[in-house]
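Final report, closing paragraph on structural work. Over the funding period we assembled a curated collection of sequence-structure pairs, and we close with a single example.
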Amino acid sequence: MFECYAYTVFLIKWPLCFCSSASLHLRANDREFNLSFKYANNAIKTSKYNIFTFLPLNLFEQFQRLANAYFVFLLILQLIPAISSLSWFTTVVPLLLVLCITLVKDGSDDINRHKNDRQVNNRKVDVLIDGQLKNEKWMNVQVGDIIKLENNQFVTADLLLLSSSEPLNLIYIETAELDGETNLKVKQALTITGDLGDNIDRLAAFKGEVRCEAPNNRLDKFTGTLAVEGQTFALDNERILLRGCTLRNTEWCFGLVLFGGPDTKLMQNSGKSVFKRTSIDHLMNVLVLIIFGLLACMCTILAIGNGIWEYQQGSSFTVFLPRQEGADAALSGFLTFWSYVIILNTVVPISLYVSVEILRLGNSYYIDWDRKMYHTKSDTPAQARTTTLNEELGQIKYIFSDKTGTLTQNIMTFNRCSINGKSYGEVVDFTGQRIEITEKTEKVDFSWNSLADPKFSFHDHALVEAVKQGSTEVHAFFRLLALCHTVMPEEKTVGNLYYQAQSPDEGALVTAARNFGFVFRSRTPETISVVEMGTNTTYELLAVLDFNNVRKRMSVIVRSQEGRLTLYCKGADTIIYERLHPSCSKLMEVTTEHLNEYAGEGLRTLALAYKDLDEAEFQAWRERHHEASTALEEREEKLDAIYEEIETDLLLLGATAVEDKLQDGVPQTIEQLSKADIKIWVLTGDKQETAENIGYSCNMLREEMTEVFVVAADTAEGVREELAPFQKSRFGSKKPKLVLDEKADGEFGLVINGHSLVSNLLRTACMCQTVICCRVTPLQKAQVVELVKKYKKAVTLAIGDGANDVSMIKAAHIGVGISGQEGMQAVLSSDYSFAQFRYLQRLLLVHGRWSYLRMCKFLRYFFYKNFSFTFIHFWYGFFCGFSAQLGLDTYYWTAVNHFFLWGSLSVYFAVSFTLYSNGMFLIFTSSFPFIGTARNSLNQPNVWLTIFLTTILCVLPVVALRFLLIQLRPTINDKVRYKVRQAKAVLPPPVRRFPRRRISTRRSGYAFSHARGYGDLVTSGRFLRRPVKSRPALFPLAESPIAENSPQTYQISSSFTHSKTKETKE
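Its predicted structure, as stored:
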């Protein structure tokens, strides 16, 4: 375990480049031309196997377990009669059972993946083929086809937008599947293709040629050209629709397929399914290797002992135990080695893996049955989608989490505001003390506003009173919120407004203005219609000065019905303050205090300002703006300069504070996981400010940190230079292959916008309890996980709720999916799933720990039991002439197993009756409420009938098979037993009793495949204890100890065992 004493925090923006130098060339409406390049079709495949590769590939994965490979080797040995004392089916049956159970489980999982693939591939879309729109399956769409999408439809493939139903060829898309954001984004078609409209004939005659970059995983960049009628037009990301997006607020649009199926950016970012194995599996492989070595040593010692014994004593038994031709002590020792490999195989029993899988299955059921991880509102229980990773949950060191929908509910609420130096949103009692807002707190009544959103809630009545009293500043504040935005309204029925916003913040602010009497009703490219306190008002929209990451503000210039020109601006407080008129200094100080208060509560803040414009001044600026917007070179820079000219001497109105609502229990969960020395990294596609606010809300970032380092470089070298002072003071310039956690003196924060530095960056991050990576693509999330796995050698867990988290979930040791608002893609790719982030605490700290402890205790006992049993045979070899026979008959071992089996069942029933007894209910009423459950269920006759019938059905086939085998293919043992029974049935005639001769042979019960034979006749203790008598006629050799009537130790000859083994096999 690594240790970390600092609470430093990273905020990382991660713009990596993965572009390819290759290019793609296609022609619209020309399948024959496009097929010549052999581009991928639009069918996707997320499954691991097909009907031909399933068996070999799955067996290959299973035989990565050394024990499985070992038992195949053991099976081969048992097929050799000269060394085997066991029938081959004693190994092949349990081995096939283990392999088949795993095959069925993996096959079932892959069948579900195939079903999901078929469901997606069989979706329908309108495709333009031979001048007609035909409804085709997604899988049949080809590169170069033109397809038609309708409102709320998923984008079929990566498309070049050709035309749309909206003015200016605009469309609105939702990209939740790609980056987790549910806010809308705007795309616009080229003018030359937009003129095609929805005219099928013109679209069918379109023969534009596209040359663009090869398939890659960059979601934020696209480079290409479109050649039409001898003209060439540049293509960028604003013209491209990516697979996985959803068309919103657009009646229809047409697009040209550029990339299909596996070549789409969504699939390029999805990652590959990998075979996940736990550290326990790796440990068992190491233990198996060690045990193999021990087994080889034991077999070598016994084989050497057998060779020595055969050399010194074996010749004494060649008269009645003749050796095969060419057999000597060396050959006997060699064969004995392999015989003991078979006999001592219990040191690595195949039942180990069966038992481990059953234990894991039980642990999985504990997770599925946990009522404390059940979400009542969504009726979603926790689900262990795999049974092989339970104990790994107790070893997690790093957690990688998505933000939107995982930590947050992705719901923005308008909580506080500051207007003209007065703060609104708090609730105070009659003494002026602040009251905590709960669900029981009285809400503001918006019934006076017929267009108010019923879902909106606010608790400060003073703000409503100010609006009703006609406060000029308050009206100007909400008028700005109703005008300065890019929200698209949708009014399905009269008064039922639904806002589609590019940013959730904008949606929350426009909804707040709506409820306080300034209702944004509709818009056109030139106007904005607002209902102000019940009065319909239309503003002429003259200019939109859009938001970007550099400007960090947005402005609109509008003309009211009275002809008044006004610029409304909203943005980051530091940016707005730099552009305020000097007369606002006092108001700025008061507003700053309010902003600091809001920020301390983890709210997302914006400052609002306005400016009245002179007509002549505006017209001159408008001309300069037109020149800059039509410039061919440095257009963005010139527009920024023009914006700077007019956004000066603003008058401050106030500030807003919006809460990105966290899921229940997120701060507490993060705190508990941090106490368990688990480091949490947040990987999000959001901008830096958003991620930073969430960090404060979740208690990942705190104001009491010693210092915050800001790294804003855009190149790797620049980031390295800005990190250098901190890194040099902490740990010099060494770059170890394995990055260890180091102690930091104090608490630090680090904000990074730029490229990663891999190991150098990671080493700094290792001193942090929390890391936040901003602006990362789905594949880059997976690369962050791989980075930590490579350099830290720690167990990682990734948790997310959208398709943009799938690659991260697959890359981590354990993937957790949250069934949220962004679909089920993350759940389908995960190992565990539940409804809320807070359940992660119980999954790791309860189920993970208990599963790990159960597994460790089980393995410790299992190896102890099997080593004890195996060493008995090893020690017995020194007393039986190293002849490879059992020291304990299998009947004994079977009896022991049955004792523990039925004993454990007895204990189970005893504990069950105790837990559901009257006494436990009286002592612990709240903990044991199910009084009499076990007793009542077992009192039902149908329960016992079911148990009885199940037992009969399980036992009957085995009994019938054994009966048929005895009748049709009796063994030597069966024939001997039959003759013994016949002999007992008829009394034998009296015979002359001769003195019993002592014979130095002992037949092994092991040589008869664990069946009871006539070995008892020659292995009884009474038989061995009889005195030896002289037999000169039988042993005339002088050197024979029997001939000399000398004491003799009776042992088994290995050659006899091998010969009888062969006889038994035959």
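The radius of gyration is 40 Å. The mean pLDDT is 78. We thank the funder for supporting this effort.
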